[in-house]
Amino acid sequence: MFVLKNVGLRGWEDIYLLHSYHCDIRSSWEPTAEALKNRIPGHRHVWTAVTVPHLAFPSMLIELEVEVKRQQ
Fold first, then answer.
1. Whole-model pTM above 0.85?
2. For the domain that residue 58 is a member of, what is the CATH number?
C-alpha cells in the first residue's frame, strides 16, 4: 500500500473495487478473505474473485488488482 500512501491516499480504506485472481481458489479463498478482514475490518468494497490457470510468474498463486478513490 506504499504506492497508495505515496500519492496521498490512506491505503486499503480508499479501495472501492477489488479483483482477485487465484490459481487455486479453493485453497486461497479463505486465507485471502481472512487477511483482508484483518487488514481492513468493517470495510466493504466490491470484490470479484476469478480462478485462472496461471499468473505472470510460476511462483505466483494469487494476484490482487484494486481501484481506489480519494475519500473526502
1. no
2. 3.30.1330.40
- Are 61 and 34 in contact by the 8 Å Cβ rule? The answer is no
The dihedral over CA atoms of 8, 14, 15, 16, expressed in degrees to the nearest 10, equals -130
The HSE-up count of residue 6 (CA atoms within 13 Å, CB side) is 3
Number of domains the chain contains: 1
Cell of 46: 466490491
Residue by residue, pLDDT tens for the chain (72 residues) are 678 888 888 888 888 999 999 999 999 999 999 998 998 888 788 999 999 999 999 999 999 999 998 877
